[in-house]
Amino acid sequence: MSRKEDKSKDDHKEVKDQVEEAMDKAIDEVDGNDENDDEQPEVNVDELTEEERLMEDVQKEKDKFLRLFAEFENYKRRTSKERLELFKTANQEVMSAMLPILDDFDRAMNELRKSGDENLLVGIELIHNKLKETLKAKGLERIEVEQGSDFDSEIHEAITQIPAPSDKLKGKIVDVVEPGYKLGERIIRYPKVVTGK
């Protein structure tokens, strides 16, 4: 064999050795990754359980926060409602104290109408109307009850029962002894009525 052929064989062998070496390296790298992959899932499993535990803790804290926030919102809403109610009915004691005076004014007006003194009636009527309008502006409202209206135990206070003057008034209101008043939506004095039987 000639030197040329020997050289070609040597070159061929050299290339073959380089290819085998590169293949061995690649196989070693893949095997090394496989070994690392075998270890990695264990680490991932530990990390996932740790991560899951942390996520559960975060979720619990979120739930606590949301519940606390909802309770606080309910508290704010309730106190706002109570404050509004308080403002509406803050003067309830004063209004309740004024009701007998208003009743006396009504009785005085009825007596003045009977007396026929027009000048006195006009003066007292002006004061009476001014008092009623002032109390109305502060939220006081008279509960309108008329003869012949249906009796409602939640709105009316029956003080007595008399024989009905007519069949239409049986179980109905015959007379209003004392008017009732509301302050806002709250009844501060129920109308006292006489019912027919």
From TrEMBL:
Q: What is this protein called?
A: Protein GrpE
Question: What InterPro entries does this protein's entry cite?
Answer: GrpE, GrpE_CC, GrpE_head
* Transcription regulation listed as a keyword: no
Kindly indicate whether the keyword Chaperone belongs to this entry. Answer: yes
List where Acidic residues composition bias occurs: 29-48
GO BP term, example = protein folding
Q: What are the protein's UniProt keywords? A: Chaperone, Cytoplasm, Stress response
